[in-house]
Structures
1.
Amino acid sequence: MNNLKNYLLTAFLMVTAIFYGQEKHKKDKIKALKVAFITERLDLSSKDAQAFWPLYNKYEEDRDVLRNKEHSEVRSKIKDVGSLSEREANAVLNKYLSFEEEEEEIERDYLKAVTKVIGAKKTLLLLRSEDEFKKQLIKQYRERHGNR
C-alpha cells in the first residue's frame, strides 16, 4: 500500500512537472515570436536594438510583477466579493485603483524612455505592432480551436 502511495505521488509530480514545462515552453515560444515580430516591424539598427531591448524587457518584467501582485492582492479577492464587508471591498477597490495608477506610470516612463532611443514614429509603430501581434495570436488560437 505504501509503495502505491509513493508511485501515485511520483506520477502526480511527474505529470505536474511536464504540464508546467509545457506551459513555460508555450510562453517562451510566444515571447520569441513576439520579439521576432517586433524586430521585423521596427527594422531597428543594431545600435538601436541594443538600447531598445533592455528597456522593453524591463518594461515587460515590471508589468508582469505588478500584474502578479495585483492578482494576489486584488483579483483573488474580487472572486469572493460576496464574503467581503463594505469596508473590505472599499479597501480592495482602492488597492485596485492604486495598481492601475502604477501600471500607467510604468507605461508612461517606458514610452518616454523608448521614444528617446527609437524616436516617436517607431514608438507608435511599436504600439501598433504589439496590437497586431496580439490580434494575430488570437486569430491563430481561434483557428486551431475552431472558434471564429
2.
Amino acid sequence: MSRKLAREDCFKMIFEARVTGATADELLDRFNETVEDGDVWELKQVNPRDMAYIETVLRGVEEHQDEINSKIQPFLKNWTIERIAKVSLALLQLAAFETLYVSDVPPGAAANEAVDLAKKYGGDDAPSFINGVMRSFVRQYAAK
C-alpha cells in the first residue's frame, strides 16, 4: 500500500466517523477485519509502516478534533465547521492533522493530497474550497 492509498483510507474512515459517530478504535477494528478478509479497501496488503500511519492519523484526529476545528475555523470565511460538507470537513481535518502533527508529511503535500481527494469525492466547489482553506492554514501553521 502506498501512503497515498493509506491517506485515502484514512479520509474514508474520518468521513465515516463524521457521519456515523464511530470511534477511531471501532473504525480501526473494522479496517483490520476487512484487510484480513480481503474486502472493500483499495489494497488488501497493508505494511506495518502504513498501518502505523493510519492508526496515528485516526487516533490523532479523534484526540485533537476540537483543536483542529478551532484552528480551521478562522479560514472558513462565512462558513462554520457545522455547516460545511462532511467530505470537506474530513479532508480539512486530515490535512490539518498532517500539517500539525505528522513530521514526515510536508504541509504542502498534505494540502495537495486533500485537494486531489476533494476532486474525487467532493462536490464541484470542494477542491477550490479545500485549496483556499488549506493554503491559508499551511501559511499560518506549517512553520510552527
